[in-house]
TrEMBL record:
Annotated keywords: Methyltransferase, S-adenosyl-L-methionine, Transferase
Protein name as it appears in the record: Release factor glutamine methyltransferase
Family: Belongs to the protein N5-glutamine methyltransferase family. PrmC subfamily.
Organism expressing this protein natively: Desulfomonile tiedjei
Enzyme class: transferase
InterPro entries documented for this protein: HemK-like (IPR004556), N5-glutamine_MTase (IPR050320), PrmC_N (IPR040758), RF_methyltr_PrmC (IPR019874), SAM-dependent_MTases_sf (IPR029063), Small_mtfrase_dom (IPR007848)
Residues annotated as transmembrane: none
Amino acid sequence: MEPQHKTPSRWTIKDVLEWTAAYFKKRGITTARLDAEVLLAFCLSADRLFLYLNLERPLLTAERVRYRELVRRRAMREPVSLIIGKKEFWSLPFRVVPGVLIPRPDTEILVEAVVQEIRSIPEPRVLEIGTGSGAVSVAIAKENPTAEILATDVNLLALETASLNAEECGVSGSIDFLCTDLFLAISQRELFDVICSNPPYIPHDTIPTLDPEINFEPILALDGGPDGLDVIRHIAVHARHFLKDRGALILEMDPEQENQARRIFTNLTGLAEIRVFPDLSGKARVIKGKLFK
């Protein structure tokens, strides 16, 4: 895996980055240079700025050995965040582990919509369905310390990871975690100002066509059924029983599902004031509706 023309003792940071980026590119990795930098910075217990300030620094033998293993894993299309064990979301560091969905930047749109909705509500109650790593609930708690949040997941490993993330981000006192499949273990006496979720919304037949990195993530958190809308429908149908008057249902979706999601919100739940929030590319990413009882 090392260039043959280089003397091993003279492998510099610059040499390693250039070779690794080219290797990743040949393997079909579109973020080749970035991944090479992130992995090398992790290997050296440094940041990416350190790399650029020390491009001519030779790597020690132990560092080369460790980095070679990281490169091997990435070349097999294991996500960088799983390799290094963390992912930044909402400018916060979240630990990620195999078996728990990795937070995506697009999901920050969901957080923005919830934070905006509860801004003027004293001590708002928020229910997050399918919390995964806890990224959404933790981000909401950081933005609104008065919020009381119930975060649920059917995956015990996800709940353990989310609880650790909440503790490490200093918001564990704002979030209760509950193991349940959707609404099953939630009492209808509990009413919320907002119900939010980043549910599984990828159509079943689409999953095999996605980038190989998807194979390292839990299928339960991705597969939304034949048209990708099974869980969205279920949440929309049952949310009215757990929302306060004028409470809001806020869900992430695929941009291609906007029209179907609008129909689901209108026809199945009687929600009004339906609004769609675009992601950074301008595509519909989050849908919100308010319940008027």
